[in-house]
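Hey, resending since the last one bounced:
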Amino acid sequence: MAAELINAAMAGASLPAAISEFLKGPWFGSIQLVLLNRGFKSADYQRAKKLNETIVWSMQPIDTSADDAAEQTQRLYRIVEDLPNEVRDLLVALEHSKQATDDAIGAAHFKVISGEGLDYEPFTLLDVDERALRASVSKALMKRVSALTEGQWFTFTEGDESTRIKLVLKLSDAGQLLFTNRNGMKALEKRFDEFAYFMSSGAVKPIPTAAVFSTTLKTYIDDAIGAYEATVRAEAEAAAMAEREQASREASEAKARADAAALAISEAESEARRQEDIRQLQLEKARLVAERTENAAFVVEICEQVARLAIGAWLMLPGPDGKPTEGKLAVRISSADKLIFVSRSGSKVGEYVSEQLVQLLVAGDCSIVDAGVEFEDTLARVVTGLRIDRNRSYDDLTGS
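The structure tokens again:
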């Protein structure tokens, strides 16, 4: 992998002899160490890949006739300032000498900054014989694999899934390893060198023997807690949704009630206006009839009858539907000349001034059923009776 990475960057490039030797020497060894110790998914390996491409790019001649020649030059100057330091940091972290960086990259970049041209020389790519690379990798990691014992547990990560596997068979003479899952079913079968690569990349990690039970228990507990939390969340979401639906229903019902009330008020107002319009037409018709010359004497007589009407008098009044309506004189306000009539249930059925009532009677739209009894006359009869009874004996009053 390290050889293929470096070869991909060097292929077709122009490089000075010192740079090609640096890439195939210390730099090649550094990338191998990153792969073996950190794994190909590590941040150090990603950083090494980027530096590998940048080193080669910084050594390429810039085509001065290109449209972006000035931009490439500025980028090159910026890279030249920091690239050697980054390479040295990575080499020091891998316990390599930084002298190789100063001798190769530092010297080449000094020529670039000073305006001198680089001396490019032909070079060969690294040998990528798979058997040689496999032997090298296996040799570096074989001790770790050879030390494995049957019964040891590992975590095996493939994609986004992670499973626990147990080493149940180790054939040292054949270089084969057999693993099963927690159910005892075959889960993995690898050669020593393949398993060593998995361990170096972090795809396989050993689990301490003492921690197998506690780790398994923690997994079950975490699963149970996760299921419980999911249930709680689902119940909370369901309760919240039910509250929202209830609030929505209540809001809809409240709106419906308000609309119904508004409609009822509107209809009542419309009905009241309609009845008032009918009442005004009835009064206007009665007025015209009462103003006729031939009815003058009749009007005087009717005025006297209206003046004699007492509280409790019953009249047949014109109703809003054209039919006569029975009404009792409940209130008579002399100062305002107003007469108010109610039905037998006490509901108001009419309100007139004396002139209007006279006109209705003259026109025949209204009639007097019972003129009622004057309150003063009734009171006088009651008082007179009390005075007479006061002079009578108990026997006279009781009939004894």
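The beta strands are 153-158, 161-171, 176-180, 186-191, 204-207, 314-318, 324-333, 338-342, 348-353, 367-370.

Sorry for the duplicate.
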